[in-house]
Structures are given as C-alpha cells and as structure tokens.
Design goal:
5 strands; 173 residues; five-stranded mixed β-sheet; 34% helix; alpha/beta
Length: 173
C-alpha cells in the first residue's frame, strides 16, 4: 500500500460505534475482569483474542503488544491488573508467522536512528521461535518482583493456519 491509495478508516469506525452503542448492554460492568484473568497477546490483526479463547467482554484484561512479549510495559500493565484489579492468572498468546520473526533488529534500529537522529531506548524484542519466546516471557514474568501472583502463568502459540492453540513454556504448578 502506498500513501496514494490510503483511505482513513475513522468514518467507518465511527459508524460501527454508532451501531454498537444502539445495542450497548455493558453499562455497569465492573472494571475488574470476572475471570480474574489477564491475557498478553500479540497485536497482530489476525488474532481475535476473545474468540480464540472463548471469552466475552468483561471476563479478562487483554494486553497487546508487538509479539506479545513480556516487556517492561506489559509487566507494568500486569502489575496494575493484579494489584489493583484482582487478576490471579496470566495467559500468554504468541503465534506462528509473527512479523517479529522476519525483522533484523540491529538493522531496523540502525535505520530508525539514521532516519530520525535518535536510537530508541526500547528493544524490538525480535525472536526466531515463538515457542522459545513464550518460555522467555514466562521466565520474565516469574522473575518480576512487581507481580505477586505467579502460580498460574500459561503460555501458548496460536497457529494462524488452523486456529489452534499449542501449549508452550512450562506452566507453574
């Protein structure tokens, strides 16, 4: 897609919201998730996290970033989720065919620095194997002093070709 063929989606989004608001039935829903569950997933547009996990609005916090990686910002969100809103379980959802698997991190950051004059303070967190990256994210979460609830952390890789979840990493006992 080039800049010439881009059409903003915002007018369609506002029309979609108007239709949603006409039938809205979520008034009074508590901010704390009913299942006491937080899900960390990739931002990939192919992942409909609620449908993949059979969840409904209000049942879980959904935290998304590039790769579904347990970054400092994800840990910040989970810290608030657990300490302020009562979640006790974390599910990580990475996926096959992730864009982060295709990027050379050093080259990307060097190009960004050449273009902008600044190198970002954050890493991209690229990875080769989503299963290994889930295990690494689980390790990061379990070692964080800011998360009080680490007994129920689960990791999965979603297959974008068949829609199935495959367990990854090692769940806590």
């Amino acid at each position: 897609m080039t800049g010439d063929d881009f059409l903003p989606s915002t007018p369609e989004l506002l029309a979609g919201n108007a239709a949603y608001a006409r039938d809205f039935d979520g008034a009074g829903m508590p901010a704390a998730p009913a299942r006491r569950l937080a899900v960390v997933a990739c931002m990939d547009a192919r992942l409909d996290v609620l449908r993949i996990l059979g969840l409904r609005a209000g049942e879980a916090h959904i935290i998304r970033d590039a790769g579904g990686v347990a970054t400092d910002d994800v840990i910040r969100s989970l810290c608030l989720s657990q300490r302020a809103l009562g979640t006790r379980e974390v599910v990580l959802v990475h996926h096959t065919d992730c864009g982060l698997q295709l990027i050379d991190e050093d080259r990307f950051l060097a190009e960004l620095e050449a273009e902008t004059g600044s190198r970002p303070s954050w890493p991209l967190e690229t990875f080769a194997d989503p299963y290994e990256d889930v295990a690494e994210s689980i390790r990061r979460l379990r070692s964080s002093p800011f998360l009080p609830h680490k007994d129920h952390i689960w990791g999965f890789v979603y297959d974008v070709d068949d829609g199935k979840l495959h367990e990854a990493g090692t769940p806590a006992s």
